[in-house]
Amino acid sequence: MFNIILFGPPGSGKGTQSERLIAKYHLKHLSTGDLLRSEIAAQTVLGMEAKKIMDKGELVPDEVVIGMINSAVDNNPQAKGFLFDGFPRTKAQSEALDQLLSAKNTAIHVFLSLEVSEEELVKRLSNRGLTSGRSDDTNEEVIRARIAEYHKKTSIVADYYQQFDKVVKIKGEGTVEEIFNRLCFEIDKRLS
Ligand code: B4P
To answer: What's the 14 CA to ligand 1 centre distance in angstroms?
Structure first.
């Protein structure tokens, strides 16, 4: 198994690059943002609760997302590996993920961190808000709250993986193709 965490602030391109990476490396894509949006679309109780939190730009409680990831991993026993996108976002989520993978005799192989300036993030998310219909992208105040939440609770996740020497910083500005090539270069080094 080969497992990757694709990390970065909101709008750094995790979703965009994940699509390409799973096509190239045949990994199972697990995006907590996508899983939460499916719950919202299906109007489940979990989805309705999560929507209220996401609309404020805050993080959904750890136990909710950890539960979703546990089930998603268990439901994919044949996977060659996982690409975690938007997860983990807190230290508790990181520890839970490590335990979950170690119970399956595997681990995270690389933590790829997309680095993008705040002004570029706001520009990308506001642009996406014009067409995506995503309520958390339409208001600049909410976008800035998501970035603040990232600095407060999520950026420390990189420190957690740094202690195991797994973090690689990737310049997340440039064309989608250029960034994809930078990511593949780091993955290929570890696969060969
Ligand atoms: P997510 O769905 O994870 O999404 P994101 O952080 O907003 O965006 P991403 O980085 O994937 O950006 P994308 O590629 O789409 O989170 C949404 C919310 O869900 C969170 O705020 C939180 O409330 C909740 N949540 C999710 N996971 C959670 C967890 N683990 N714990 C608690 N809560 C959780 O790119 C953005 C835009 O940029 C797109 O329009 C794209 O086209 C554009 N773009 C991409 N690359 C570009 C490039 N190189 N140049 C120009 N534009 C580019």
So the answer is: 6
For residue 160, the CA-to-ligand 1 centroid distance in Å is 21
Kindly state if the Cβ of 60 falls inside 6 Å of ligand 1.
yes
Q: What is the mean pLDDT of each run of 10 residues along the chain (192 residues)?
A: 97 97 98 96 95 96 96 94 97 96 95 97 95 89 95 96 97 98 97 88
pTM above 0.85, yes or no: yes
What does the alpha-carbon distance between residue 135 and residue 23 come to, in Å, rounded to a whole number? 28
> Residue ranges of the domains in the chain?
3-27+79-191
Q: How many CB atoms lie within 10 A of CB 77?
A: 7
Terminal-residue alpha carbon distance, the chain: 14
Residue at 88: amino acid letter: P
Instruction: State which fold the 3-27+79-191 domain adopts.
Output: Rossmann fold (3.40.50)
The response to whether residue 129 sits with its C-beta less than 6 Å from ligand 1 reads no
Question: Which of 124, 152, 171, 180 has the most ligand 1 atoms within 8 A of CB, as the residue to mutate?
Answer: 124
Q: Which amino acid is at 5?
A: I
The string of DSSP letters for 23-85 reads HHH-PEEEEHHHHHHHHHHTT-HHHHHHHHHHTTTPPPPHHHHHHHHHHHHHT-TT-S-EEEE
